[in-house]
Amino acid sequence: MSIHVPLSAVCSPASKTAVPAGRPGPLPARLVDGLGRTIDSLRISVTDRCNLRCVYCMPEDAHFMPRRELLTYEEITRFVRIVVPLGIRKLRLTGGEPTVRRDLPELVRQLAGVSGIDDLAMTTNGIFLKEMARPLREAGLQRLNISLDTLVREKFFEVCRRDALDKVLAGIQEAEAAGFSPLKINAVAIRGFTDDEILDFAVLARHQAYQVRFIEFMPLDANNAWERQKVLPGREIIERIHARYPLEPVQNSRKEPATLYRFQDGVGGDIGIIPSVTEPFCEYCNRIRITSDGKLRTCLFSVRETDIRGLLRGGAAEEAIAATVAEAVRTKEPGHRINHPDFVKPARLMHSIGG
Ligand code: SAM
Ligand code: SF4
């Protein structure tokens, strides 16, 4: 299916008057890229700041954007209202650490009030969930993914550079008590770090009925620590768990990046792998992202961005902004090229893209 936006309806950031107010050009009812992929999912980074310093994501001495550069909650909500008529149905808040942005439940409340959104989720490191899980739930947040790379305190400090494992575990408990179920736990899988805890994570999934998902380490880190040998392949993780606790595949919707397995004996939750490096799933990609400073990215690994904040603050008509989004999607990257010799790492680090 090809895109329905005539080029005349497409407005570049510099030509925001190309679609005159009151005479909108035709816009697509859904976002489809040049390869026929339908985009219905938007990841919204609300900050590049964080209370951890995970080695695979940001440097210890990270520099953060001035607050005036961040989209306000009203600007984020306005943008969401503009893309819902284009077929966006799923939102995920991320960062940086979304819970460090002041009064986050207010943003959730605004987004939950946008009609047409079916799924409102957030990815968090969990540190502030003890205090925030309930307010977020009451504001309308539907689902939570919590990042947890290790169950060992010293290893947590090694990878996140902060001594906060207890806070994350308390946050996970509170999230469950607040009604976020089933919880998804995300662990970045790093060779030489994760290997000796694979079975412990499997036991966690069995005892707590969480969906435990292993994300392959991707080259988006600050310190250029990524090496192919440090990627612990998802397939290997599944084999290791299967040998101890037999697994069987769950019928996957290709709309989720995780390949899911359940325990054959019916105990507990699921195990997922997100094999972004060894088995890329770009051909099924259904998402776009907006950074906290309002740049639209059509791939996690994009080397180009589209300035939405300039349009929002420059008084552009909604139709013009929608047309800009549609044009960016039309030329969405076919894939991330991590496994190609010409791979170029994006200039932005993970914490300022929004993972
Ligand atoms: N601060 C929140 C958190 O950690 O959950 C949200 C932002 S974080 C960038 C989103 C997800 O990206 C986390 O699950 C994190 O583990 C993952 N991530 C960060 N850097 C990564 C990398 N280089 N490779 C794979 N996953 C990464
Ligand atoms: Fe912070 Fe999340 Fe990045 Fe860790 S992965 S430094 S918690 S943004």
- The N- to C-terminal Cα distance equals 28 Å
Q: Work out the helicity level.
A: 25-40%
- Structural class based on helices, strands and sheet pairing: alpha/beta
Give the amount of beta strand, in percent: 15-25%
Strand order of the largest sheet: 9-10-11-8-7-6-5-4-3-12-13-14
Give every kind of bound small molecule, once each.
Answer: S-adenosylmethionine, iron/sulfur cluster
If you average the pLDDT, what whole number results?
A: 90
Largest sheet entry: 12 strands, mixed
How many strand units?
14
CATH homologous superfamily placement: Aldolase class I
Which overall shape is indicated by the principal axes computed on the Cα atoms?
Answer: globular
> Which regions are unreliable across 5 or more consecutive residues at pLDDT < 50?
1-24
Q: How many domains make up the 3D coordinates?
A: 1
CATH architecture call: Alpha-Beta Barrel
* Gyration radius, rounded: 20 Å
**CATH class term:** Alpha Beta
How many helix segments? 10
Question: What is the CATH topology assignment?
Answer: TIM Barrel
User: Would you list the SSEs in sequence order as H and E?
Assistant: EEEHEHEHEHHEHEHEEEEEEHHH
